[in-house]
Write a structure and sequence with these properties.
alpha+beta, HlyD family efflux transporter periplasmic adaptor subunit, conserved putative lor/sdh protein from methanococcus maripaludis s2 fold, membrane, 4 domains, transmembrane, transmembrane helix, OB fold (Dihydrolipoamide Acetyltransferase, E2P), 4 helices
């Protein structure tokens, strides 16, 4: 019998440390995960390889698109083919740009899309207070430099007067020198005469003294002294003459130096005046530039037209470097509603029948039901559209477009046979022909099953029949759009086929 007083606490074991968690060995990756991954990959490969057995593609036979080339008589006015396009401005919409060097804030937009504007009408009003101040400042700088230029020219005139005065001083110096020299020469001549007279008196006194006829020794000595005095006066007169001549030469030289200095001053002042004139001319250019900036800040319509789009709003900063170079500062787009054209995507298979100047008829049934607009082929883009397998061709309307037409409206264009100057000619034409039994009616259109050889899938593609083909009962039908000469059409196995379904070509249907 069990003891009810037994102490079970004595069986408790006290552990001294935390029991470590049990970790699986790393070998489970190579022993468990890797085998499962290999088995899964192998199973996926087998499933992919046998997918055609599990879900087999539909077996189909294909038939190629036939290309018929032959001579066809061109009948004037006969419809050659039809293509779709859209209306657009002729030659292009016009972007009205802000051509200012500075950047300005749009204060007010004065037009809305669809508004008719006259040439010169202001479209967008900019905040031009700064440009007006620049014009005022440039005008004041110009006036200041004009005053400086006039002052410089006055200095040149003053320097010219100084040159004239210096020339007069030279003439006066020469005249005074000549007068002084003449007076000194007269004094020298007079002194020479006095010497001769004194010498003669001395000789007479000496003869008288020697002959004892008269006179005395005193008078002889006085006569000789008079001779010496006359010679001294003569020498002094000669010295004065030389001095007068030298002084006159010096004064003339000084006056000539004055002329040279005055001419140098005049040349310097003339150069400064030319510089001042150039500064004034530069200031005038700055005035014109500021006025041009202010004029360009007024955004006006370059011609009468309709606003096609607005690219700004009040508060936006425009001008300067606010946009890319190809659309720099465009604020409004205009077009002339009296000049519209139609851009048509002509299939490459029909492009051989396009001739510049050829007649066309344009129909815009949604807007102009029952109306046909005459036009001519203006030019082609000389660049094919790879994605559409077409060539853009531009058609110009022969008369003023109806007021209901708008850019980007879809239009149907009928290309007609052009008139010939001689008898009707046979032209080589290439046509894409498909068996009529392969056509699938889809509402108001027609589709055919086309093989996608890359993906191996079926594509239910919409095609466009040639005019009148829908009403014919022939075995083959001409297709003008939606197919390429290299396409393969699904002829058999179409029952239960869905677009995008996988198919397998088992042969060609004859």
């Amino acid at each position: 019998m069990a003891n009810p007083h037994a102490d079970l606490g004595a069986l408790t074991v006290t552990r001294s440390a935390v029991v470590p968690a049990i970790r699986l060995p790393r070998r489970w990756v190579s022993r468990v995960a890797l085998p499962f991954a290999l088995v899964g990959g192998f199973a996926g490969l087998v499933l992919w390889a046998s997918w055609d057995v599990v879900s087999p593609p539909a077996d189909v036979k294909v038939v190629p698109v036939r290309v018929q080339t032959g001579a066809a008589e061109v009948v004037v006015g006969r419809e050659l083919f039809r293509a779709n396009g859209w209306v657009e401005p002729l030659p292009r919409p016009t972007d009205v740009t802000v051509q200012t060097e500075g950047m300005y804030r749009v204060a007010e937009v004065l037009v809305y899309p669809g508004d008719r504007v006259e040439a010169g009408k202001e479209l967008v009003r900019l905040d031009t207070a700064r440009a007006a101040l620049d014009v005022d400042a440039a005008g004041k700088r110009h006036a200041k430099r004009l005053a400086a230029a006039r002052a410089a020219r006055a200095d040149v005139t003053k320097a010219g007067v100084a040159v004239t005065n210096a020339g007069a001083t030279v003439g006066l110096a020469k005249a005074e020198g000549e007068a002084d020299a003449t007076a000194a020469a007269a004094d020298a001549a007079k002194a020479g005469v006095a010497v001769k007279a004194a010498e003669l008196t001395a000789e007479v006194e000496e003869e008288l003294w020697r002959s004892k006829a008269a006179g005395s020794d005193v008078r002889l000595r006085q006569a000789k002294q008079a001779v010496e005095l006359a010679k001294a006066e003569r020498d002094a007169a000669a010295a004065r003459l030389g001095k007068a001549r030298t002084g006159a030469a010096v004064r003339v030289t000084q006056a000539e130096l004055g002329i040279a200095a005055a001419e140098a001053d005049r040349a310097s002042l003339a150069a400064r005046a030319d510089e001042a004139d150039q500064d004034a001319a530069d200031a005038a250019v700055e005035v014109r530039r500021a006025e041009l900036e202010l004029a360009r800040a007024k955004v006006v319509a370059p011609f009468a037209g309709v606003v096609m789009g607005l690219h700004v709003r009040p508060g936006r900063i425009v001008g300067g470097k606010d946009a890319l170079a190809e659309s720099k500062g465009a604020v409004v787009t205009l077009y002339d509603p009296a000049r519209l054209q139609v851009r048509v995507e002509v299939p490459v298979a029909k492009f051989a029948m396009v001739r510049r100047g050829g007649p066309v008829e344009v129909e815009v049934e949604d807007v102009l039901p029952g109306r046909k607009l005459a036009g001519t082929i203006a030019y082609d883009a000389h660049l094919a559209n790879v994605s559409r397998n077409s060539v853009p061709v531009t058609v110009e309307l022969a008369s003023t477009p109806p007021v209901e037409l708008r850019p980007d409206m879809i239009a149907a264009v009928r290309f007609l046979a052009p008139p010939a100057s001689g008898p009707a000619k046979a032209e080589t034409a290439r046509r894409l022909v498909v068996p009529r039994r392969l056509l699938v009616a889809d509402g108001g259109g027609v589709r055919v099953w086309v093989l996608d050889p890359v993906a191996g899938r079926a594509d239910l593609r919409a095609v466009e029949l040639a005019p009148g083909e829908a009403d014919r009962q022939t075995e083959a039908a001409e297709v003008v759009g939606g197919l390429n000469p290299t396409d393969k059409l699904i002829a058999t196995g179409r029952d239960g086929l869905r677009p995008g379904a996988r198919v397998r070509v088992v042969g060609e249907d004859r």
